[in-house]
Design goal:
Elements (H helix, E strand, L loop, with lengths): L6 E2 L11 H27 L2 H18 L3 E2 L3 H18 L1 H5 L17 H16 L2 H12 L4 H8 L3 H24 L1
Antiparallel strand pairs: 1-2
Helix pairs in contact: 1-2, 1-3, 1-6, 2-3, 3-7, 5-8, 6-8
């Protein structure tokens, strides 16, 4: 499944498709490794867990249908790029423009070991991130929540590094203002 150039191949050397079992094994391995990351990014982007789960499902269906040639170590970037594109498509849809999605409060995914204060802080931060414009939210999610560098984000999104850096700086300023405003209430 891997060639000498470091690509995962979805075709064999003879240009024959992988067997159904080989393809299922590959998709299962990628799903087990990255589905949580795809869900997290989709959830933060959309603010609706069921819609985020739909995006995760669609991402892996597209993986099986398109059978892309992925560079080893870049599988996560491809999956997240597809997820973000699907999230953007969702927000652009006519239905979303006519209907208000979800309520103002985003449910947080917390660790059972978190203190009440920690849970409140996480919820406030998630609310603030979710209130950012999509361009700012996207770079914050990829940079902080997925641990990607600006270079990796630039490669994945085809947005210049300088633009991403500016968006990240502006997002930080907005988050600081939002969180300081929340502390005063």
């Amino acid at each position: 499944m891997q060639n000498n150039k470091g690509f995962i191949r979805y075709m064999s050397v003879e240009n024959q498709e992988l067997s159904t079992e080989e393809m299922q094994d590959l998709v299962t391995r990628l799903y087990e490794t990255y589905a949580t990351d795809v869900l997290r990014v989709s959830y933060f982007y959309l603010g609706d867990r069921s819609k985020a789960e739909d995006v995760v499902q669609d991402v892996f269906i597209r993986l099986m249908q398109s059978k892309p040639q992925l560079e080893v170590g870049k599988e996560k970037s491809w999956l997240l790029k597809v997820a973000l594109n699907l999230c953007r498509d969702h927000w652009r849809s006519a239905w979303v423009k006519r209907v208000f999605l979800g309520d103002e409060k985003i449910a947080t995914i917390t660790d059972d070991n978190d203190s009440i204060e920690s849970r409140v802080e996480k919820e406030a931060l998630l609310q603030a991130v979710h209130s950012l414009s999509p361009n700012y939210r996207e770079v914050v999610l990829l940079f902080y929540y997925q641990g990607m560098s600006l270079e990796e984000i630039s490669t994945m999104t085809d947005i210049p590094i300088g633009t991403l850096g500016s968006r990240l700086t502006r997002a930080r300023k907005q988050l600081k203002q939002l969180l300081e405003g929340a502390d005063k209430t």
